[in-house]
Amino acid sequence: MKILLQSLLLAGLSLGGVANAADAPDFDVLTSMSVADFRASGLDKLSDAQIKALDAWFGDYQRRHALTCTGAAPARGPALAAPAPAAADAYPMTAHIVGEFHGWSGSTRVTLDNGQVWEQMDDATVTAGRMTNPKVTISRGVFNSFYISVEGVNDSVEVKRIKE
Asked: How far is CA 75 from CA 18, 79, 99, in A?
């Protein structure tokens, strides 16, 4: 549970700064996470009342820790520039699936027009109808995870790269 709460905290912090935390809207886990993240974190097993309590707790946490949640931090000397990511490893990345795509079945593999092959990691089943060469976006998640979303499909799923 501690890891879950830390993940939610990181997700909330990544939503961007708020000028005044007291004016910040209440946190809503259902709209702040993708369906795949929601399932992967185990939040789909919570009741509506438990999710509402988690939303209230996180909103209160953001208000109590306004300095941390707004991204403001006291100056600690000159900032060091972060190294630029390698161009070949830049995310989000867009490409197209080669051939037909019908949706996710829990172990779906897709080949992209750049030669990469990605395999679904979660057990989500999403029917997308028949799509030919749809555009996809692959985004990096936390702890070196990756998520793929297909243009025209409302759900994203966790994937791992099988082939460069």
From this structure: 19, 9, 52
